[in-house]
Structure formats: structure tokens, C-alpha cells
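Table S2 (continued). Query chain:
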Amino acid sequence: MDLITYLVICGGLLEFFIITYIVKFIFNITVRQKSTYNIVFQDKSVISRYKLILLLLVQIFNLLIIVYYLRKVTGLSNVIEASHYINQSNNGWIQNQVQLPTIVGVLSAFNNACGLFSEYLIAKNTISKSRKNLIFLFLIILMGMITAILVSGARGGVVYNIIAFAFYLYFVYKTKIKWNNNNGKWLLIIFLGILLMVTLLPWSASLVGRAVTDNTDPIDYISIYIGAEIKNLSLFIQNGFYPVKGAVWGQQTFVGIIGPLSRLFELNIPQYSLDLPFKSINGYSLGNVYTTFYPWLYDFGYSGIFVLTMVMGIISETIYLYAKIQKNNHKHLICILIYGYISSFLFLSFFSNKFYEEVFSKNMLYIVISLFLIELFFKKVKNK
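Corresponding output:
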């Protein structure tokens, strides 16, 4: 790789760390003076089993509606094939572009939010060594994952949930031990978790109907999967043709919100697809993944990396810090749940621009509203 690629990656990481420390410093001398960090772990949550069963039934009903629209839009009776067809359409791999109705996005977001809420409850039960409602909570999470797979035809939804659950475990555990700085145990757990996820990559690819590349060797597949992003970014940087003046401002970075805003305000923004060309080198297919820096460079050049890294750091660190405080004996549960969701996008920045694609999207709005409704439904849930 060339020197500029190293500077882009290392410089972006360094800026992110600096921004989060600055946000934390400002937060501590303003907000924290009026609030206190969670220093006591007392699990007095009251979760109604009947409410969990009702929530599960709603998820199943939503899933049936989603399956109906999958079949209707694609014209395929096999749900797995219909889901795979949606994935091909979303990635521009087929000429016939199909779009699921808004109701599918709303119901899918609700099912996903139910899964996030249940993951947090299981994390609390795990740390407190409780088995309350474990089966129902697991089934709710499973429904959320199945929904994510069917709607997207990809593994992303499952990965997001796994990362969110890891964060909830970490958050609840750190709350219990008064937020000391001993993270050695968690670094080991995270490393082993990543190792397990990487090992399962070839199997999970076949699960959603994807070929495991032309090379049958799983080691080759894993190496390409976790290394292609940086190599593709390096190839793009070496070409030097950026920023690219597209027909739409920020079209690669803010793809998740441009379409909905165009329809909402009747802006007549032309339809476009992401410019993610497939690459290959030395006989290996590297796919079309470029890390989160690619769309920023594509749309705005080096200034885009500086500004967008700063915005990402401010948003994520602010939500995280609010999740850690309690005020008037009420923990900011919604911030915990939301950060668990966006933590996966931060984690996957090495892979793609998921943070800006998802955080600035109508799906994020649906997720937040759903989490508020679920928290209201379980209004007796408290973690003092």
C-alpha cells in the first residue's frame, strides 16, 4: 500500500480518538456536574412475561406481513429466494430493480428494536445470573434476526445484533463494577468473539445463498474478507480521481437519507446507485468494499475525512456518555439501547460507510421511535 493510504487510515483513527476525548472533557465539566455516573448495580426490573409473549406475537404477525410483501414484490414463492433477489436488487447486481413498501421498513425496524431491547435484558440477566424469561427473550431476538435476514438478504442484521449484545454485556458489567478502567478481560473476550465470527464467515456466506468466492479454501476467503477493504481503498487513492463531482451532493456518503428527503420535499433528485466497482488483483476477487473513508474521499476529498470523522466522534461519544449517567434515579435507557445499535456501525467502519448510511436514514428514525414505544410499553423497567 502507498503512504497516503496509511496516513488516511491512521489520521482518521487519531482524529476520532482526539474528538471523543474532547467531547468527554466538555461533557464532564457541563452535564456531569448536574448528574452522576452509574455507580450502583441493583437489578429491580419488573418484566411481565405476558407482555413479552404479546411482543413476540406482534413480531410474528409483522414477519408474516413482511413475507407477504417479499413474495408479492419479487413474484417468488420461496421466501429465501425472494430475500436473495432483494439483496441482488439492492446491490445493483440485476437489472430489475425492486423496492419494498414503506410498511416493510417500519415493521422490520420494530422487530429489530424488540431484539435490541431483549438483548439488553438478557445482558442484565447474564451479569446478575438470572434466568428470568430467558426463552421468550431469546425468541424475540431470534425473530429480530430472521426479519433482518429476510428483508436485506444479507448477514449484516445478525452481525449488528451480535455486536450490540456484546456492548450491552460490557455496559451492564462496567456499571456493576463502578466503571473502573480494567478492560483487560473484555479485550480478551472481544478478541475471541472476533476470531469466532471470522471463522464462521465462509459458513454464513453459504447460509444466505452467496458463493464463497472462486477459491474454496476458507483461509483465502477469510483473508480476502478482512483485507480487501483496505486494498481497494488503496487502489482508489492511488488513482487520484477524487473528489468525484456526481449529480447529487454527498451521494455516496448520505445515500440513506437523500432518497427519502427527495420524496418528502419533492426535490426531484435523479435516481443513482452507489459507485462501488468490483476489484481483483493477482487472481483474487476483492469484491466492492472500501472502508468508510472511500465515500468521504469520493464526495468531499480529504476535507470530508476531517469533517465527517469529527461528526461521527461527536455523535457517538455524546450518546455513549448520556447512556452512562443517571439523573433523578432514572437511567437514560434509550441512549443505552441506541448506542448498542450504532456501536455496530462504528465497529464495521473498517468495512463500509454503515455509520452514515444507517444513522442518517429513515430506518434509524423507525428504530428510535420503536425503542421509545417499547420502553413505554415496559414502563416498569428500571435499572437504578
